Structures are given as structure tokens and as C-alpha cells.
Amino acid sequence: MKSNLLSLLLLCVLTEGAVAIEPVTLKLWPDGPPTAMAPKSDATAKLIQSYGGVGPNRISDVSQPTITVFRPEKPNGASVIVAPGGGFMFLSYAHEGTQVCDWLNSLGVTAVLLKYRTPTRDEKEMFEIPVQDAERALGLVRHHAAEWKLDPRRVGLLGFSAGANLAGHAAWDRGARTYPQKPELDDPRGPDFLVFIYGGGFLDKDDKSKFRAGFSIPADAPPVFMLVAHDDGANQIESARLYLAYKERNLSAELHIYAKGGHGFGMRQDGKPISEWPQRCAEWMKSQGFLDAPGPAVGGNDPQRTATAEAVNAVAVADVPAPIAYWKLDDEGREARDSVGAHHGQIIGAVSHEGKIGKALLFDREKEDHVSIPHSPDFEIGTFTVSAWVWLTKEPTFSGILGTRAGGEFNFDMKVNADKVHGDIGDGTRWIDTKINFYKDDVGSNGEGGDLEVRRWYLITFVVDNERKECRLYLDADRKKTIPFEGEPRLMRPGQTMRIGSTGNGEFMDGVIADVRIWKHALTDPQVRSVFAP
Question: Which of 191, 198, 220, 412 is the least buried, fewest Cβ under 10 Å from its Cβ?
Fold first, then answer.
């Protein structure tokens, strides 16, 4: 009897240890998808049949998309959303889906299998509806980060074939999203990294030496791992061209082209060298820091690790001095709150809008929208740094970001014009320099000049260094120009009003502005980089 009881207890212990964490499935659109799918044509139905039709591992007719979350036994905080291929006809759900999730779990990565809407071959753009599903999936993962013990800054997107196409669009497109955003479900950011496996669809169909009209790799594209076989149609040309675009912008990318492998191999093992791609991909993710063990922000409870992480964070924060004013512009009322001081402003006309992270303010030039901030002695300074995140909604024409010219000229403003980012500095009685500009040819080290694109985020930073007698101008933390000056600049003087969304002299913004900060210090290059990527 005692022996039987011990055996039963042992069996219970072993069984408990062997039970895997049950996958969790969530609907992407609890109230129904935002865009109706076109009816499946006879041609699409016949094409699906030509591939062998549907089955347990090849699914189609997905009208209610979901994500299924596969959590590893020992999560490291990273997550990857997996988008199977299938030519926008079906989803190859096993060797490009569930098997991929098993492999990711073995690395400690939380795998999120995306069952996106399909078929969409009869849509004007086959990828548009699936991209909606990927964007919503990114939002859901980040909103559940604390619950699932994830790092919201290590959310990757991995796609095969058509899944790689939608993943690429989710990572690289910078236009407005095609469905109404819900703050409790969506996140404006794309993936933090991208795994692009035998994808295509980004080159001109008639001229493979260039991208399709309207597409380019943005300056803030995420790190990418690309893999393709030499004998896979034109997909190796696609990957090579994408890699070169990354190289031209000095962005992080890794490309593997194998001699043999064809298309659609996924996780299959057939003895070819290309079958080892998961190992290469894991090495890349580790080298990029995406597989690092979690710190306290993602649920780590190791006291030594917590202390180390807190010390590192303390150093990072200490490296950048505290600003004297910080308007997040995420306010719900008509007051723009200064989150670090008492320099609160009045919101005139501008309305709440999706920001880079959270909420921001949308400004309309024709309505003369702006934020009005009263004078403060804190702003009577000659050395200062001003930074703001900006998203242009129209081609700029002296579109004001911030200025102190209301109530008197000759102090400071920063704005965006066609082919340049422009500024003026003065001493309160005269202009010192009215050409504090960087132009489209001032490309710095990342290839981006002053001809800003519409509908993408930029961090614009002006440093006025009165000790060195120079202005330093930055775009996305990349220094574009250093301009010497003579004189004693002042940010503001009594009687003036500071404005956000305007220079204060009739130059208003068409766009979204977020996170406006002012320092009484001349930030250095490393400090500006820390502000850009804290």
C-alpha cells in the first residue's frame, strides 16, 4: 500500500513537471475586423486547389484573425510574432508556424503565432489587410507585456514568403495606418527587429534594380535578419536590394544567401546547409541582445540582477541632465502640463492624436493651432537645448515647431521648410543668425538630410552652446551641422510668449508634435543619442 502511494505521488510530481504552459489564443478584433474582405474569386479558389487544397497544416478562409501565444518554460523576455507564408491564399501553419514557435520557445522566446486574414489575393493590395492584423498583434503583445513577462522593447516579427512581405510592410512603411487606432489595443511602433525569410514584393515588377513606387527603407528601420536561396526565383534579388538599402543608411542588417534551397522550406530538414538557418538566426538574435535575460522590468526577481540593472539605469539617466521643462502633450484637457516643472501652457485648437508612444497633439496650420506658454525667468538663458518629436501631415512650409517670437522678435525659433530644417537665434534686440539650417544635402552619418518625409516620426534637436559659440543641429540623434555664431543668444525675454506648433510669428504646423523638452545645458552627441533611444 505504501509503495503504491509513493508511486502515485511520484507520478503526480513527474506529470506536473511535464505539463507545458497552455497556449493562449486572443481575437485581434473583438468587435469584428475593420475592413471587409473581398469575396474569394473562382480563380483564387482554383489556385488554392492547385497547391493541394486546405488541410490541418494548410488553412484558409480566415475571416476572424487571432494570435496564439506559446510561452516557454524559462522566458527571457523576448517575443516574436510569427507570420506563416502561403501566397496570401492560405497559411502554411505547421512548418512555417507551429514548428517555428517550438523552436523559438527552445530559445526562451515567447512565440506569438499570427493567424492573419486570408485569402486576400482579390484585394487591390494583397498585403494591406494582413498588415492590419500584424499591427494589431504588435499592439496586443506590448499591452500584455507585463502579464506575459515580456520586454515591450524586444518584440520581433518573423515572416515567411507572403508572411515576410506583410512583416516587411509592418516594419518599413511609414504612412498612416489604415484602421482606427484604439489606445488600449494598439501601439504606434513597428517591430523592434525583423526576420525576413524568402520574402519579396518590394521591387518594381518591370525593373528589379529599383523598389516599387512609393517604397523605401526608412531611416529608423529595425535591425533585420534576411535569408533566401539562390535558386528561389527573384527573391534573392529582393533581399540583396533590401540589404543594400540598409547599408546605404548605415542600419543593422544581416543577409544569408544559400546556393540551394528553393522556396517554402520553413523548418523542414532535408540535409541541405540552408536547413541550419534557425541556428544562424538564433546567433544573430543573441548577437543583437534580443535573447538577453530579463531585468526587473520584465519580471526578473534575482536580487543581484536587479541591483545591476538598477545601477546601469541610474548611470544612463545620470548621463543626461534633467530638463527644465518637458511637455509630453498627451493631455486630455486644454492645459499642456509641464511634467517636470510649473511651465504649463494653454492648448489652442490642437487636438489629441496618436503619438509616437501614447498620445500627442495634432496641429492644423489653417486653424493656427498652437500651445501658448507664458514667459518664465527659467527661459532667460543663453545656452540651451530644445528637442521635439515631429510627424508632418503635409508638405512643410515654414512649419513651426517651437518659437519665442510672440510678443517680440529676435530670440529663437525652430521649424521645418521644404528641403530644410530651419532655425533663428537672436539676443532679444537683433538677430544673431537667421540661417541655423540643415538642408537635404546635409546627410550626416545616416544618409538623412533636411528634406523630411511626410507621415513618419523625427526627433529634431537644436543645441545652442554659448560657451563654444556654436549651434549643433540633429535629426534622429545624428548631427547634421555645426554652425558658429558671434553674440549672446537668449531663448526668451520678458514680455514674450513661447509657442509650440508655431514660431510665434505666423508660422504654424501641419503635423503631430510630442515630447517637447528644454534643457539649460548644451547636450553632447552621446546625450542626444540617449534622448533619442533611452
Answer: 220
